[in-house]
Specification:
The structure is a single chain. The chain is of the alpha/beta class and 330 residues long. It has two domains: 242 residues, Aldolase class I (TIM Barrel); 78 residues. 46% of the residues lie in helices and 14% in strands. Strands 3-10-9-8-7-6-5-4 form an eight-stranded parallel β-sheet. α4 links the parallel β5 and β6. α4 packs parallel to α6 and α7 packs parallel to α8. The longest helix is centred in the C-terminal third of the chain and has 19 residues. The chain binds flavin mononucleotide. Flavin mononucleotide (FMN) binds next to β4.
Length: 330
């Protein structure tokens, strides 16, 4: 069982924060489908402190999103501490610090993965945040800045010494961005050194990928990002694969039902026409089919996508989805 501070997660497979995807509807969906926790996308601590309304919206959540983490980004200790307090006041169960974002504008600002170049600064920030945060406090990071300066073991040390409750590690350096290949040995080394739970992250698309990571490293949990887009079943599949040695692949009816449920949730949350428009990026993933989807190789799926991404309005889109699945089911 994965425990983060005082919070016992129901499952050890958890949804990664994904900017532009992990909004309230998607967090509710994956929570209901087995993710052990959910998180906002990265939120600028400075923007939160300045009461930026768009930023506040990123924290809008319901009681169906549990446990609910707010991920903060920044390099100003005061702002990070004040933003943590605002997030806790808004209902965050967990505060997560982003030390992994590789984006140029973020790094130029000295935030995200840029901090990996100054571990002493990380120690100061974590110390101050820990002292001010009464709820569980986690950190999400990468292996280091680049291949020649991989300092994940130093980050593990700092997190342990400063009372962080769990550490999620994306098994690449900042310079690797999302290039192929994750470093499982570094994860195994981090797990060996750490007294706090380590959550491994990177390239998990199937329950077998999760099993490989868990068995190769002994990590306490796995975090799934891109592999959950269009495949929110992955959490339950991973848990079943671990606990029962087998898992159920969703049926065409399951995919149809979840797509329709998801677009309705987005429509309700964002209103017309924004909800349907924002759903399009999920839709293309649902209809493409991942390695364990009944849609893999489905005929007409390209045609369907082309039509679906130009369809306006909730009910016409639901009708199109139903027609597509009726056709596939024949
Ligand atoms: C579109 C996109 C948005 C992301 N946004 C965030 C974010 O807001 N915060 C964060 O810590 N990581 C973010 N990440 C990184 C993911 O959380 C994760 O570490 C990375 O995608 C590797 O995991 P995966 O291979 O399972 O996707 C993002 C990744 C992608 C592809």
């Amino acid at each position: 069982m994965l425990k983060i501070g005082t919070i016992l997660l129901k499952h050890h497979a958890v949804m990664a924060p994904l900017a532009g995807y992990t909004d309230s509807p998607f967090r509710r969906l994956v929570c209901g489908m087995g993710s052990g926790l959910v998180s906002t996308e990265l939120i600028s601590a400075e923007a939160l402190v300045h009461n930026n309304q768009k930023t506040m919206m990123l924290m809008a959540h319901t009681t169906q999103e549990k446990p609910f983490a707010v991920q903060l980004l920044g390099n100003n200790t005061d702002a990070l501490v004040r933003a943590s307090q605002i997030a806790i006041g808004s209902g965050a169960d967990i505060i997560d610090l982003n030390l992994g974002c590789p984006a140029r504008n973020v790094v130029a600002n000295g935030s995200g993965a840029a901090l990996l170049r100054t571990p002493e600064r990380i120690r100061e920030i974590i110390r101050e945040m820990r002292a001010a945060i009464p709820v569980p406090f986690t950190v999400k990071t990468r292996l280091g800045w680049d291949e020649t300066s991989k300092n994940i073991l130093q980050i593990v040390d700092i997190a342990n010494e400063q009372g962080v409750d769990a550490l999620a590690i994306h098994l690449r350096t900042r310079q690797q961005w999302f290039k192929k290949g994750i470093d499982l040995q570094s994860l195994a080394d981090a797990v060996k050194l750490s007294k706090i739970p380590i959550i491994g992250n990177g390239d998990i698309l199937t329950p077998d990928d999760a099993r490989t990571m868990l068995e190769a490293s002994g990590c306490a949990g796995v975090m799934i990002g891109r592999g959950a887009i269009g495949n929110p079943w992955i959490f339950q599949m991973i848990v079943d694969s671990q606990q029962k040695g087998e898992y159920r692949v969703p049926s065409l009816q399951d995919v149809r039902d979840v797509m329709i449920k998801h677009v309705r949730m987005m429509h309700e949350f964002y209103g017309e026409p924004k909800g349907v428009k924002l759903f399009r990026k999920h839709l293309v993933h649902y209809s493409r089919g991942g390695p364990v989807s009944p849609l893999t190789g489905a005929r007409y799926s390209a045609d369907f996508r082309a039509k679906a991404v130009t369809t306006e309005g909730l009910e016409p889109l639901v009708e199109l989805i139903n027609a597509y699945f009726d056709h596939l089911g024949k």
